[in-house]
Amino acid sequence: MPKAPRRPPQLRGRIFRGSIAVSRGLLTRNDLRSSAWRPLFRDVYADAQVKVTHRLRCAAVRRWLIPPGAALAGRASAALYGCTAPGPNEPLDVLVPKDARIGPTAGLRIHHGEIDPGDTVDRAGLRVTSPARTCWDLARWLDVVEAVVVIDTILASRLTHVSALREYALSRAGRRGWRSLLRAVDLADAGAESPQESRTRVRLVLAGLPRPQTQWVVADQGRFVARLDLAWPEFKVAVEYDGLWHDDPEQFHRDRRRLNRLLGGEWIVLHVTAKRLREDFEGFLAEVRAALRRRSHSPAGR
Predict the structure, then answer these.
(1) Which of 3, 94, 186, 205 has its CA 20 to 30 A from that of 71?
(2) Rounded to an integer, what distance in angstroms lies between the CA atom of residue 156 and that of residue 192?
C-alpha cells in the first residue's frame, strides 16, 4: 500500500513558499511533488485540498511574486470586479511600475508602465487597477473585439460609464493607448448580455454595418412580444445569438415560439452560433447585409 504523503499541520489549508517550507524542515523537495500539494506558480504551492479560485491565485501573486507598487490588472482585475470568468490556469496580468525589477514569471503577464494617482484601488485586500485604468489597459493589450467584450461587462456592472472613460482617455492624450481606449469605448455597449453577443455586434460594426440596438424590445399594441439581442428596428432586421443554453429544450421552444411571432410581424430574424462566428463569419455577414439591403428598399424598412 502506497505511503500517504506528508501533510504537516502548519501547511494544511494554506498557500506557501516551497523553498521556505523546505528550509524549515517541514517538507522535502520530493514531498512537494506529491499529490498533497498543488503548484500554483514557481515556488508557490497550495494544499491540494484547498479550492483554488481566481482570487486565491491573485492573493498568492500579490503576496509572493510582485513588487510593492504593482497591481493586478487587465483581465485579472476585471475578474476581481466580477466581469470575466478566467480559466483556472489563465496567466494573470500584473501592472508593474516602470522602474521596478521583476523577471519573467510563468503564469504571469507582466506589463511595465506609469501608474498615476487614482489608477489603483483596494479590492477586498488586493491592489487592483481602477475600472478606468483596467479598460485602458485592456484596450492596449487586447485586440479591439476582445477588449470591448470585457469593457461591455464593466459598463453593464456600472463600475464606470462611457463619458468617464472618454474623459480618462482624453486626459492621457499622447500616451500610448489613449486612442485605442477611445476606439473601444465608441464600440462598447452596456446592453450586451454575453461575451458572444458583444463579439457578434463589434465584428458586424467593424465590417461596416450600421450599429445595432442591443436588447431591443418589440411590442404589439403595448403588449410585450420579444426582446432581441441585436436589432435594426428601422429595417425590422434582428440577430439572435444561439448559445449553449439552447441545450434546454423548453427554453429553445419558448424562444422559437416568440421569434415565430416576430416573423409573423414582418421581422427578419437571423441566428448565429459560436461555430458560425468562428468558421463562417463572412457568410453570416453577407446574410445580414442582404437582409438590411432588402429592407432598406421595402415598405417594412420605412
Answers:
(1) 186
(2) 8
What's the rounded Cα separation, in Å, for the pair 179 and 84?
Answer: 24
Same-domain pairing of 85 and 175: yes
Q: Compute CA 11 distance to the chain's CA centroid, rounded to the nearest angstrom.
A: 34
Please check whether residue 258 lies inside any domain of the structure: yes
Which of 117, 193, 128 is CA-nearest to residue 155?
193
CA 247 to mean position of chain CA atoms: 23
The C-alpha angle with vertex 186 and arms to 282 and 133, in degrees rounded to 5, equals 115
pLDDT tens digits along 97-143: 998 888 888 999 999 999 999 999 999 899 999 999 999 999 999 99
pTM: 0.88
Q: Which domain holds residue 216?
A: 195-301
Dihedral angle sign, alpha carbons of residues 244, 247, 251, 253: positive
Q: In 10 A of CB 109, how many CB atoms?
A: 17
Matching residue, cell 506557501: 16
User: Using an 8 Å Cβ cutoff, are 127 and 71 in contact?
Assistant: yes
